[in-house]
């Protein structure tokens, strides 16, 4: 605890270090490496795991001179501060996008947005998603297996909750013969929608940089017509109108769900193709900035994990 004046809850163990050890270093060493494993073995309980003060007293510590402890503690504090700064930047970018979505895309039955690019003044047209898509198709009915280095498999859980990007850290491949599965390959501009479960409504737009991707059975693909900007349609899945549509339409007696026919009924308003293209390009650049910031954050977190692993064996 680096700051005074904070009230601690009853479920916390409080350790007051003596003058031989730096508090920041102590927090690091008991949370990583051998000491952390030792504490994990002492933890007791089934549904709720407890760690008692007596268990903490028995942990064997290995630590260097006080000066080196301070340098280690200060180093990781600086790294944590940098991570916190990048996390704050990411949250600010995500909040900026949500604010722009509300202003640039019409809300609550309006057909004119609050903010527009110069040169556009016409009212937008109300259309159904089914009118803007060539087809809606269900995904591949196959389990996932170890990634083969070429054929990627996207499932609901592979789509990031906030950015809706394809998470490619733990890639898998479809566990089936793919010689006749070309219909399940994604193409540029394809949109995916989760059709069941707690993540119903989650969306994803395929990008060619994601590679060769097959989509799984709990996802629905909407192949957007070439005369419509796919990214503009994708951005509409971040609006309150879309969230309300999913909330109402997904209601079931059992698990929530929205099928292809229901997705086709989603109402949205669209401008001319030229304005769609400009809006789609604008949000594409903003999404790239958010993705870049997220990558920086993930690299910093991974760096901290690696350094802790090397320092506290």
Give the helix/strand layout.
Elements: H1 23-30, H2 33-42, H3 53-57, H4 66-104, E1 125-128, H5 129-132, E2 133-138, E3 144-146, E4 151-154, E5 172-174, E6 191-194, E7 203-205, E8 212-215, E9 219-224, H6 230-235, H7 240-249, H8 260-263, E10 267-270, H9 273-311
Parallel strand pairs: 4-8
Antiparallel strand pairs: 1-10, 2-9, 3-5, 6-7, 6-9
Helix pairs in contact: 1-4, 4-9
Key structural traits:
alpha+beta, 4-stranded antiparallel sheet, 9 helices, 10 strands
Structure write-up:
This protein is an alpha+beta fold. Helices cover 40% and strands 13% of the residues. It is built from nine helices and ten strands. The protein has a four-stranded antiparallel β-sheet. It has a two-stranded antiparallel sheet with strand order 1-10. The model has no long low-confidence stretch (mean pLDDT 91).
Brief account:
The protein is α+β, with helices and mostly antiparallel strands and 313 residues long.
How many H/I helical runs? 9
Instruction: Give the end-to-end Cα distance, rounded to a whole number of Å.
Output: 24 Å
Radius of gyration: 25 Å
Uncertain stretches of 5 or more adjacent residues:
none
Helix content: 25-40%
The order of strands across the largest sheet is 2-9-6-7
């Amino acid at each position: 605890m680096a700051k005074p004046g904070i009230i601690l809850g009853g479920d916390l163990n409080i350790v007051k270090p003596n003058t031989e050890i730096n508090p920041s270093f102590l927090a690091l060493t008991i949370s990583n490496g051998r000491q952390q494993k030792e504490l994990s073995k002492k933890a007791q309980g089934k549904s709720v795991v407890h760690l008692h003060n007596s268990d903490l007293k028995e942990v064997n510590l290995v630590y260097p001179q006080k000066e080196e402890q301070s340098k280690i503690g200060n180093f990781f504090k600086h790294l944590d501060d940098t991570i916190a700064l990048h996390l704050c930047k990411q949250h600010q970018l995500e909040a900026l996008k949500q604010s722009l979505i509300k202003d640039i895309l019409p809300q609550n039955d309006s057909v004119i947005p609050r903010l527009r690019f110069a040169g556009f003044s016409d009212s937008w047209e109300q259309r159904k998603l089914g009118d803007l898509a060539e087809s809606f198709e269900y995904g591949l009915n196959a389990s996932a297996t170890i990634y083969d280095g070429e054929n990627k498999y996207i499932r609901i859980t592979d789509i990031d909750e906030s950015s809706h990007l394809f998470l490619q850290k733990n890639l898998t491949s479809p566990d089936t013969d793919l010689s006749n599965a070309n219909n399940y390959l994604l193409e540029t501009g394809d949109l995916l929608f989760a059709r069941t479960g707690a993540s119903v409504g989650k969306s994803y737009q395929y990008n060619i940089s994601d590679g060769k991707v097959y989509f799984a059975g709990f996802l629905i693909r909407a192949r957007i017509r070439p005369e419509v900007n796919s990214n503009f349609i994708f951005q509409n899945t971040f609006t309150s109108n879309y969230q309300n549509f999913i909330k109402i339409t997904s209601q079931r007696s059992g698990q929530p769900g929205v099928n292809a026919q229901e997705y086709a009924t989603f109402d949205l308003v669209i401008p001319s193709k030229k304005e769609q293209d400009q809006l789609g390009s604008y949000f594409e650049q903003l999404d790239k900035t958010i993705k870049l910031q997220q990558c920086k954050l993930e690299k910093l977190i991974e760096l901290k994990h690696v350094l802790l692993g090397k320092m506290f064996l």
